[in-house]
Amino acid sequence: MTIEALYELYRQHPVVTTDSRKCPSGSIFFALKGEKFDGNDFAAQTLASGCAYAVVDRPDVAAADARMILVDDTLRALQQLAARHRRQLGIPVVGITGTNGKTTTKELTAAVLSKRYKVYYTQGNLNNQIGVPLTLLSLQADCELAIVEMGASHPGDIRELVDIAQPDYGLITNVGKAHLEGFGSFEGVMQTKAELYDYLREHGGRAFINAGNSWLRQLAGKHLGPQGVARCIAYAGETTAVASDGAQGAGALEGFEPKVTGRVLQSEPRLRLAWNRMNDAKGQEGSPRVHDVQTQLIGAYNLENALAAVCVGLHFGVPADDIDAAIAGYQPSNNRSQWQQTDRNILIIDAYNANPTSMNAALDNFLPSERPHKVVILGAMRELGAYSEEEHEQLLRRLAAADIDQAWLIGPEFARAAEKVACPKALLFADTESCLAHLQARPLKGCTVLLKGSRSNRLETLLPLL
What we know:
Elements lengths: L2 H10 L3 E2 L10 E3 L12 H6 L4 E4 L2 H4 L5 E3 L3 H16 L3 E5 L4 H12 L5 E3 L9 H7 L7 E5 L7 H9 L3 E4 L7 H4 L2 H8 L1 H9 L2 E5 L3 H10 L8 E6 L4 H4 L14 E7 L5 E6 L13 E4 L7 H14 L4 H10 L8 E4 L4 E5 L5 H11 L7 E6 L8 H14 L4 E5 L1 H7 L7 E4 L2 H10 L6 E5 L14
Parallel strand pairs: 1-2, 2-3, 3-4, 5-7, 5-8, 6-7, 8-9, 9-10, 10-11, 15-19, 16-17, 16-19, 17-18
Antiparallel strand pairs: 11-12, 12-13, 14-15
């Protein structure tokens, strides 16, 4: 079946599922393949459970029922269908990627834009080759603007996703050391993220850019073409963390003129920030209006994420006061940038993802705190390949010199690092289960605790005891 013919069926049945256990009545099931399953095996079951059609790529399965739609490759068909639907709607699409902060930036931006528009945005972490098509196919006719988060772990991933999502605007939150096993190097990370800029250059799109980040300025100059600066809508914090950027960037923006600037007013216990737009009407004192926003986010590193949302909102005409209300009202969830006080401890929870860049940013925010009895519970950083040993050793050195009571370190990567780096404050655990057992036997009380680790560490299982 051609994509045009499949699209006509989709318009009659505009709900798509790839999970044979979830079959809304009248939906279309796509029989995708995984390492341990073949969706074709469940196609007949989905029809019996309420699906109107099943898209399959095995002729033997297709022959069993007239409601089976045979294609060459079900994943490719899903992606092509999503791209066709995106073209049909013709609404502005903002594509967001980056090593860290892309989900928080997406959520903040959606909150801001929703003050004026009917917005649909990536739910959860549906940001890969399957998730992006599902996001696009969830867009309804009344949607006025879409925000599509795009993740990557290998070269070419972003190029594949932008060809599907076809963004008019793009935003790279930052570039850092993550998925090095797949990318091969930090340079590989940069080149892959820049595939978003390449697409914008080729299709006349525009980029929202953190002009205080020297790596992003470098990528914009290289990948957005001779008119790169003109294609950028810039924002910048008045200070830029050395640990995340590698250089203080806000002092010399190399031709970029930020439309929005901001600074941290307070980072403990939650981020309070100030921002202003450079072309605001002058007040009586001759200065642009300064917006003071108390957020529910933890960490000074979230300043850049908030400024990105401000910049996007202003570009799309959202009133400044509505932007403030949206950012102030955003409640982080899913163990990202959360502050919680229990009857035993104060918790800083940022346990959804971890890589060397985000780990150091979390420590930059946590270690200077003057709260007594500081404890860090860190899960090992994954997918670092040949860089794993070096990065965990560097982290151990930092913890050894830090003003903390204890460091609870989970995973064999830390155990190997401890063989070379002495850290008297460290308690080593093979896995989260053993850490949980230790916590049950020796509860923490009266401490300020940072939890940071990769999703695979499942640090959230410790929360009930903290």
